[in-house]
Amino acid sequence: MSTSLPVRLIEKQRWLEPIADQLQPTIAAALDDDGSIGPTYANILHGTWLGHPLHAVLTDVPIGSWTAAAVFDLLEQASGSMAMARKADAAIVFGLVGATAAAVTGLADWSKVGRDRPRRIGLAHGLLNIAATACYVTSLCLRRVHSRRAGRQFAMAGFMISNLSAYLGGHLVYGERIGVDHTAGFSPPEDFFPVLAESELSDNELRRVDAGGMPVLVVRRGMRIYAIAEMCSHRGGPLSEGKLQGTLVQCPWHGSCFSLESGKVVNGPAVHPQPVLEVRVREGQIEVRSKR
Ligand code: FES
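Above: inputs. Below: predicted complex with FE2/S2 (inorganic) cluster.
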């Protein structure tokens, strides 16, 4: 993958790894079933209830507010208008509230990205956001003691840092595919396609089969056979290596739970459902096709 200069620089920052090693499992444990936060709040933070990563929604608040603050600051500087000054201050406060919410949701998502490449970029993204937030808090304090010029300078520094951080956030989504639906390219056969002899599928077995080049998970529970996309929508984990809990399957990588009946996400970090396939048995063969 070709990468930009900021990303290449971050990849060289090995000092980030020990911080990530300490922080990531601590947050992940707090979000787990028996953790201090627990899965209900974890699902709220991930955006499982929304069907979309909540962090991506909230990041627009500080970016938009601080962009507005930069414009109001420039207008205040040019005109000396106190109305513009008040608007700039209010936009900074609004941005700080949004940044706090975005930080909490971002930490929850980051705790479940695994230990590979995006983890270091995600940590750098978070540290830059802390730096930007510190600049804006300092800016507000300076404005309160009537050092408006210095306050505007700190705000501009925060604005530049937050934009660099936003660039990394964009890279995590578009470059590293964090937060996207990893089943988006899943296109099973339109017509019924034989995948396995019925006699070869044991009860409660998680079996990966191939349906015209698409990996599919088939599971028999008594008289019923279920079929859903085998690659987890969160980051592509192999659901056939996960755990079966009744009619739920749990991903082995970061613990997302999906309903075999509907594909619905029961527990995150996944937010996108698993595609469900139609199943029938003909002449001793299990056949699947895309749901109509
Ligand atoms: S890949 Fe992360 S929960 Fe499945």
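The mean pLDDT is 95.
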